[in-house]
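Hello, quick one for you while I still have it in my head. My current little project is about how a certain protein chain folds up. You're getting the sequence in one-letter code plus the fold written as tokens. Would you mind checking whether the tokens look sensible for this chain? Here's the protein in full, and shout if anything looks odd to you:
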Amino acid sequence: MSQIAPRILVADDQKDILEALRLLLKGEGYEVDTATSPRGVLSALDKRDFDALLIDMNYTRDTTSGAEGLDLLARLQTIDAPPPVVVMTAWASIDGAVEAMLRGARDFIEKPWDNRRLLATLRTQVELGRALRRSQQLERENRALRKEGFPELIAESPAMQPVLKLMERIGPSDANVLLLGEHGTGKEVVARWLHAASGRAERPLVTVNLGAIPDGLFESELFGHVKGAFTDAKVDRLGRFQLAEGGTLFLDEIANLPLPQQAKLLRVLETGEFERVGSSKTQRVNVRIVSATNADIHAETTAGRFRQDLLFRLNTVEIRLPPLRDRREDIPLFASHFGRRYAARYRKAITGFAPDAMQALLGHPWPGNVRELDHTVERAVLMAEQSLVRARDLGLGAGADGVTPLDQMSLEDVERVLIQKALARAGGNVSDAAKALGLSRSALYRRLKHYGL
């Protein structure tokens, strides 16, 4: 739960029930207000905000039909951004539950209630309600990192606040930065933000995916070559270092660089000098290095697979990006952002996400992080038949054991799952995962990009 204690409004016409619920919820860290009638509920909502409502379906006017509760639900839906509502009644029925959900209730509790189910239901609805409200505030102007000309950073979760503060401190400097985090956590977006925040913003930002460069082309790609240096060198070519002169060079997947190439990179970082392939003329370069990896680079260094002296040059400042599963508060914000983008791209009249879709998004583990969420929302926008994206549009459904059977998957989905499993077994090491799958490293990178992993 958030650091701020959730506030719950409980409504029932029986004072002993109100007291029992107040004691139960207070013991779980909730702040509790009570009301004894529908009018009392509406009056309380006029005075303050609540994270969720737990309301009885029957009051003194009519003790069995649930009509008062249904009328209250209908009135609650006329309020701007109403909190999630959980209804309860001693006269439970399937028809009553269906009608309550149609009127806007998020869940249904029977009296006498089971404490564990009631608390679990409220926890879920408080999280969902807060997430939906954050989504509606996506465009608010108090985001410190939303500046003109900067890449958009969606980062309101508590897990991202230390990251944002560190970025703000080091962005204007020339310090080399090492970005750590799983595939799809947004390392390239952070690299672009750091470049935009620096005094080099008017100069180029050049990106190199080191994991996708064949071993024999490393020097040519980074340092350039002269005409005739090798068979296919038909013309002179500038390398990435020269292209980034005065600006920032983003070296992605740095941990996948073989040791011989690490030595060549180290020399440039230490001296600022290099020679193009086929030339003896020394070139000087002035660039800021931002590098990134999803691997445990410190473990790679301990194992002797990554040079410690190179690591020292790269990580003047180290930023670790949390996975999406640790920043659930940002999921609705990302979903809304991607939803608007793809609705415009595909000319779909999508206005948002239905509660069942948002709940599915919040409950998914997101092994592919933000990149996977982006891919999922794009597919959902294409599949949606209504103005709101529904859970069925997301394609996140699973069987009873939580896993979709292979025979119910498309060929692409099967390949995607196998790649995820190979990466998990390899501890995120792309080279090892590629070997296990019988692919070249560059071929696996192409698939990672294709599947949004």
Remarks:
- The two ends are 28 Å apart (CA to CA).
- Residues 115-136 form the longest helix (22 residues).
